[in-house]
Structures are given as structure tokens and as C-alpha cells.
Design a protein that fits this description.
Oligomer: homodimer
Structural class of chain A: alpha/beta
Shape of chain A: elongated
Radius of gyration of chain A: 17 Å
Amino acid sequence: MHARDLVEPFPTVSLDTLATEVAKMMSDERLPGVIVCDETGSPFTVLLGLEVLRFVIPPYVQDNPALVRVYSEKDSDALYGRLDGFTVRDMLPPKPDLDELPVVGQDATTLEVAAVMARLHRSVVAVIDGNRLLGAVTVSRLIGHWTPEEQGRP
Amino acid sequence: MHARDLVEPFPTVSLDTLATEVAKMMSDERLPGVIVCDETGSPFTVLLGLEVLRFVIPPYVQDNPALVRVYSEKDSDALYGRLDGFTVRDMLPPKPDLDELPVVGQDATTLEVAAVMARLHRSVVAVIDGNRLLGAVTVSRLIGHWTPEEQGRP
């Protein structure tokens, strides 16, 4: 079995999609992340829900967890406003490891997909055929492939 | 808004649940993880799908990604067998950071929940009332709370 056998349609956004729009997509569709395509439409990376959170959380709270207590319930709820006016480009981690992106070719084996997920700590990887996006494989889909019922499949 | 307002029912397993059973749950229910309860039934941690993958991937492949190529399609697909005979206890990371677990009290603010997710790199945190498990908050549910439609809610 290869990545192309496990691929499923997955929502994509561009580098210029509004942060608020991405947050709504992730919420409405219960997504762990979205595929980000570059200016040419080629998949560039996967933006995780956790990265949206990191963008919203004030940096000094990330550095010093005890400071979380200075935010009241209302202050915490108001943090959403930090997404206003920003785009996907702004939310991507500042120094993405460009040596390895969460993208695999359609011929990748299940082990190759698993290894990329584990190494990059990503529960979603994009699957491409050349420059064309085929969709994504999620960790639960991959694990499902490894359950006994699936083992007899061609 | 507090963790108790965002909590949803979430599947739990024990430390002795079979690895194959957990894999099937994650696959069937498309779960990013499951809540692990200890011998007393109290939530202990969250086991992620990524941790199941790490358990399945041969260690020398994790250390040296190039070695993934020595596994054929069939060899890769057969790796599921590595789960046989193991339990949740075996799949948990060898040195969990016991100083901080992916568990929050029901009174945690949205920022506290977000900070725990971001710091522990977990898309799911368990929510407790004392020792009683209420369920979990997922990253997409938390982000959804931060979308404009929700901001007007009491």
C-alpha cells in the first residue's frame, strides 16, 4: 500500500488566506490542520491548529506559563482578536525546516508516511503527484491501514 | 468561558488496553488520540496517534530516515504486527514529563487550555473535576470558541 491508496480530500488554503477564515474552517470541519499552497498552487506545508494557538497566545505566556494566571476569563476569551488582520503567512512558524516539509509523493510507502509524521510531529501530511496535490493522509487513517481488518486488502 | 464549557465526551483506555485495540479505536473514530486512565480510573495522560506510529516505526528508521528505503511496500505494511502483545503502557513515551500532564481542571480559562496544548504539543487535553474525568477539549473546538460567531455567547 502506498500514500495514494490512503489519500483523502483535504481543505487547502493559500498563504494569503485570512487567519480568521482558517480558524473558522478548522473549527467548522473539526480539522487538526489545513494544507497550505504557495502562489503556484503547489502544496507548501501543513498549518496545524496548534500553530494557530501559538500565534494567539501572548509570547510571554508561552515563555512563562505562570503568567497565564494574569489573564481573566474575559481577557482569555478576547485573545481571538489577535488573529485580526493576519494571514496564513503570518501564522506559519518563523523558521520552517525547509529541508523537510510534511509532504510526500504518492508512491511513498506506509512506513515513509509514518516516518515523516513522527519526525515532523504532524498528524497530517499532504500527498502530491509531481506538483499536483492529491489530498492528505491523517494519522488515524494511517493507523487504520495497520489494523487487522485492512491487512487482507489488496 | 472555561474548560468545562468546551469539554466533550472522549474515549478512554486503561494502561492495560491492548495496543491493537487502541489502534482500531483511533482508526474507527478518526481520533487524534485517546485519554489514558490509571488503575484508579483517574485520567493519567493522552496517548496520541503519533505515539502509536513511533512505537511501530523501527528505531533505526527513526534515527536515520534514509533507512526507510530498505523497507518494501509489503515490509512496511507488515509493521502493524509490532503492536501485537503490547499495551497502552508500552506505547507511552518512556519518560513522560510528569511535571506537566495534558490534563486541566474544569475551571481553566481558554488561555490556560491553549497554553497547555501549545507547550505539550498536544491537540487534545483531558478535563477533570477533582479526580473525575469530564472529557476532553480538542484544538479545533478551542479555536472554534475563538471565532467571531462564538464571541457573543454568554
